[in-house]
Amino acid sequence: MKLELQGITKSFDGFVANDHIDLVVEPGQVHCLLGENGAGKSTLMNVLFGLYEPTEGRILIDGEPVVFKGPGDAMAAGIGMVHQHFMLIPVFTVAENVALGNEKTGVAGFLKLEETRKAIREISDRYGFDVDPDALVEDLPVGVQQRVEIIKALVRNANLLILDEPTAVLTPQETDELISIIGQLTAAGTSIIFISHKLREVKEVSDKITVIRRGKVVGTANPDAPVTELASLMVGRSVELSLGRTQAVPGEAKLQIRNLLVRHENGVPAVDHVSFDVHAGEILAVAGVQGNGQTELVEAIMGLREKATGSILLDGNELLGRSVKQIINAGVGYVPEDRSTDGLIGSFSIADNLVLNRYDRAPMSKGLALKPAKIAASAVEKVAEYDVRAGSAQSLISTLSGGNQQKVVLAREFSRPLELFIASQPTRGVDVGSIEFLHRRILAERDSGTPVIIVSTELDEVRELGDRIAVLFHGELMGIVPGNTSREVLGLMMAGTSAEEALAQVAAEPGEHTTEQRPTLPGGIA
């Protein structure tokens, strides 16, 4: 199938999400759409899949114009889409999910699934998917669930497959398996549109790269293009991707977590008897596929989880059982994973958001009275220091880009002396240029002697920042390894293998396993 998008424009109440985009995908080609979060990639694909009707422009398949009134029309034309968040019903079997929307019934209205099961087995055998048609989806690993989504498209004879941020919830090994599957699909003639913001993956999988920025195509590139060139196209200026980080000089163990147990509302452990230390002047990066207890761990430290037992000592003082305000006043800085919901107040100004953690303390207030002049003057300084792009310090926080909002959060948390700094998903939804800035500020805090915990699902970020890396799987600590540990080892740990077993398994495999040349810190494996 040859796909052509000509002048596709999509507007929402005056906001132009896609601005006259032209795109050509050749048969059997992997065409990558590269761009930051919010660049308009997913909107464009929703137009192609019939979820949105274009404001302007047209779609051609094999030279013929087509109009899609809904996803059914797109699927009938041979287009399939695997969304970033899977469209599967957990309590249904694989066969029931694949048949959904195209059900065939027999006597008394009972589903006839044997034909679907046969199709699943044929596709699974052809591509080595190893998917059981009768398995419950909720029992399958995330990587296998993604294969089910691909099978759903292939059963409907998709000749072009849209993969929207397909590696967002995968381990490195599952990502490698997906790339292998993509190779098999394109060899059979299937065209692939691969949507991502990850430069390394895009270079590895693509035949051609189109870069979108602020709803417009700003350039095309071949996969051998330097990452600096691709990054510059994404953000519109040159970007320094290497931090040139210095060696950490860890001191005493400032944070000591012992036997921490955090339960979900249904009583199932979200964090399962975890113990570790964080030293002064080091960054402990917490890795794992999203949903494996990272959020609950951080929220327990911050006093946001009532059903937590064990011990959390900061400088010998127990934090467990204390209020959020008491923990903040103990010198804990916190960047939540969802800044818009938990980190900022959109209807407040930048200046007001910068004092949310100290509005009731000198010099920002006296007694019950705020000191507006002091708050405003401090905000002007922080806006300049953190290069927050805004009209003024009085601009509403809701008018800022994601990267500038995150700068405000960091500026607020770093505006006072800290005993511990925690950042959860510190660069989620942030452009490449802002990532560079935020990483340097976090490293500077480490170098000042503060113990730092970073939680990230981006493995490249974990390896870039972490002096040591802790990996969680289903709430259990698989181990703590040095920051220069290979992606292969970390991937195995993210899938539930202990650190010792993962290191032994990778060491026994033939070939080289690259590591960053950074020093091994004390306490390498826990």
TrEMBL record:
<feature type="domain" description="ABC transporter">
    <location>
        <begin position="255"/>
        <end position="499"/>
    </location>
</feature>
<dbReference type="GO" id="GO:0005524">
    <property type="term" value="F:ATP binding"/>
</dbReference>
<keyword id="KW-0677">Repeat</keyword>
<dbReference type="Pfam" id="PF00005">
    <property type="entry name" value="ABC_tran"/>
</dbReference>
<keyword id="KW-1278">Translocase</keyword>
<keyword id="KW-0547">Nucleotide-binding</keyword>
<keyword id="KW-0067">ATP-binding</keyword>
<protein>
    <submittedName>
        <fullName>Simple sugar transport system ATP-binding protein</fullName>
    </submittedName>
</protein>
<feature type="domain" description="ABC transporter">
    <location>
        <begin position="3"/>
        <end position="239"/>
    </location>
</feature>
<dbReference type="InterPro" id="IPR027417">
    <property type="entry name" value="P-loop_NTPase"/>
</dbReference>
<keyword id="KW-0472">Membrane</keyword>
<keyword id="KW-1003">Cell membrane</keyword>
<dbReference type="InterPro" id="IPR003593">
    <property type="entry name" value="AAA+_ATPase"/>
</dbReference>
<keyword id="KW-0762">Sugar transport</keyword>
<keyword id="KW-0813">Transport</keyword>
<dbReference type="GO" id="GO:0016887">
    <property type="term" value="F:ATP hydrolysis activity"/>
</dbReference>
<dbReference type="InterPro" id="IPR017871">
    <property type="entry name" value="ABC_transporter-like_CS"/>
</dbReference>
<dbReference type="GO" id="GO:0005886">
    <property type="term" value="C:plasma membrane"/>
</dbReference>
<dbReference type="InterPro" id="IPR050107">
    <property type="entry name" value="ABC_carbohydrate_import_ATPase"/>
</dbReference>
<dbReference type="InterPro" id="IPR003439">
    <property type="entry name" value="ABC_transporter-like_ATP-bd"/>
</dbReference>
